[in-house]
Write a structure and sequence with these properties.
355 residues, three-stranded antiparallel β-sheet, 7 helices, 20 strands, binds 2-amino-4-trifluoromethylsulfanyl-butyric acid, binds cobalt (II) ion
C-alpha cells in the first residue's frame, strides 16, 4: 500500500494550504487549520475559483519540502495550483517529475501482463494462508512464484525494504514485514504484492481469512472490498480523484469505520510510486481530473475504529493507534475513453474472501 503521505498535505496532496494573512506560517496555526477538512475544502474552493476551474497541482509525498512559509505564500500556492499532465511516449524519460503521466496502448498491455502475474501470485497463495504458516514462508512462495513468472518483486531493495511482499495482520494497517510470525485461527491478513515484469509494476493486495473469523472482522473485510469497487466505479474520464475518494469515504463512514489518511494510492506503471496521490477521503468534484491514459492504484485502508495510525520502531509497520482491526484491498487500474480497466483482477475468481 500506499505512499506515505506528508501530514501537511491536503486530502488531494497539494501542499498548498490557504494563503492566510500573516504569512509566514506559524506552525501551530498551520497545523490547526490543516487538521480540519472544512479548511481544506475552503482552500480548495477558493483556489479553484481563482483559476476558473483549472485543477490543482499535486506533489508527490517525499518530494521537496513545502516552501510555503514565504512572504509570497499566496503566489507559491497559485504556482502549485495547476495539475500537470504529460503524454508518455515509449522513448520519454521516466522520471518522477510530479506530472501525471498519460500512457498509450503499449503501456496498458504491459500493465495487463504485470497485473495478471500479481493477481496470479495472490491466487497461488490461497491454499497456503492457513493457521501455522509463517509470513516468512508466504514471502518465499511469493518471491519464487514471481521469479518463475519472469518478474522480480519490486519491493525487494525498494527504499531499503528487503522482502518480496507486505503481510499485514489484524491491527496492522500496511507494510507488515514478513518473518517468523505464525498465522493463527481468526486472523485477518492483507497480502500486498508487486511484481516488476518487463518494466511494468503490477500492484495489488487482498485480504485473507485464516480459519474461523468472527463476523465483525468479516464484515470489515466485505465493506473494505466494497469501498475499493465503489471507488473504481467512479474512475472514468471527466470524474475527479475527489469523486473516487468520496465514494470510498461515504461507504466506509456509513458503517462507522475510519478511513486511513496517512497512506494513499498512487500513480503506477514504469515507476512503482508516481504522481498522483490517490487519497481515499475527499469531496466530489475536487482534485485532479481523470483522463484516458492515467494508470494508478486505489487501495483504501479501513479501520473498525479511528483512522489514526502509528509507525512501529522498525520504520515500516503501520498499526492502528487504537489497535482496532484494519483491512485493505488494492487494484491497479488504467483510465480508458469510457471508464477504466482493472489490471489486477483475479484469474481464479479469488477477488475477495471467502476463497
Ligand atoms: N505495495 C505497496 C503499495 O501498495 C508498497 C510497498 S513498499 C514496501 O504501494 F517497501 F513497503 F514494500
Ligand atoms: Co500501491
Ligand atoms: Co501494493
Amino acid at each position: 500500500m500506499g505512499l506515505h503521505r506528508d501530514r501537511r498535505a491536503t486530502p488531494h496532496g497539494a501542499k498548498i494550504g490557504p494563503p492566510l494573512r500573516g504569512c509566514p506560517w506559524k506552525a501551530a496555526e498551520r497545523r490547526r487549520l490543516l487538521a480540519r477538512s472544512f479548511h481544506y475544502a475552503a482552500a480548495q474552493h477558493s483556489l479553484s475559483a481563482a483559476f476558473h476551474g483549472q485543477s490543482r497541482s499535486l506533489l508527490l509525498a517525499g518530494a521537496d519540502p513545502l516552501p510555503i512559509a514565504s512572504q509570497n505564500g499566496a503566489v507559491t500556492a497559485i504556482c502549485r495550483a495547476m495539475t500537470e499532465y504529460m503524454t508518455v511516449t515509449s522513448d520519454a524519460p521516466m522520471a518522477r517529475n510530479g506530472a501525471i503521466k498519460l500512457y498509450g496502448r503499449d503501456a496498458f498491455e504491459g500493465m495487463h501482463k504485470a497485473g495478471r502475474l500479481a493477481a496470479e501470485t495472490l491466487d497461488m497463495l490461497v491454499p497456503h494462508v492457513v493457521p501455522g504458516v509463517t509470513t516468512g514462508e508466504l514471502d518465499d512462495l511469493i518471491r519464487n512464484f514471481m521469479v518463475a513468472g519472469g518478474a522480480v518483486p519490486a519491493t525487494l531493495g525498494y527504499r531499503g525494504y528487503t522482502h518480496s511482499s507486505c503481510i499485514s495482520i489484524n491491527h496492522v494497517v500496511c507494510h507488515g514485514i514478513p518473518g517468523e510470525r505464525t498465522l493463527k485461527d481468526g486472523d485477518i491478513v492483507n497480502i500486498d504484492v508487486t511484481p516488476l515484469l518487463d518494466g511494468w509494476h503490477g500492484d495489488t493486495s487482498r485480504m485473507f481469512l485464516v480459519g474461523d473469523v468472527p463476523i465483525k472482522a468479516r464484515r470489515l473485510v466485505d465493506v473494505t472490498y466494497e469501498c475499493l469497487m465503489l471507488g473504481i466505479e467512479q474512475a472514468r474520464p471527466g470524474n475527479t480523484m475527489g469523486d473516487v475518494a468520496h465514494a470510498i469515504q461515504r461507504h466506509a463512514e456509513a458503517h462507522r469505520y475510519g478511513v486511513v489518511r496517512d497512506f494513499c494510492g498512487h500513480g503506477v506503471g514504469r515507476l512503482f510510486h508516481d504522481a498522483p496521490e490517490v487519497v481515499h477521503v475527499g469531496r466530489p468534484g475536487t482534485g485532479p481530473e481523470l483522463k484516458p491514459g492515467m494508470i494508478f492504484t486505489i487501495e483504501p485502508m479501513i479501520n473498525i475504529g479511528k483512522p489514526d495510525v502509528k509507525l512501529l520502531d522498525d520504520g515500516w509497520t503501520a498499526v492502528t493507534r487504537d489497535r482496532s482491526l484494519s483491512a485493505q484491498f488494492e487494484h491497479s487500474i488504467g483510465i480508458t475513453e469510457d471508464g477504466c480497466e482493472i489490471f489486477t483482477g483475479s484469474p481464479g475468481g479469488f477477488d475477495k474472501p471467502p476463497y
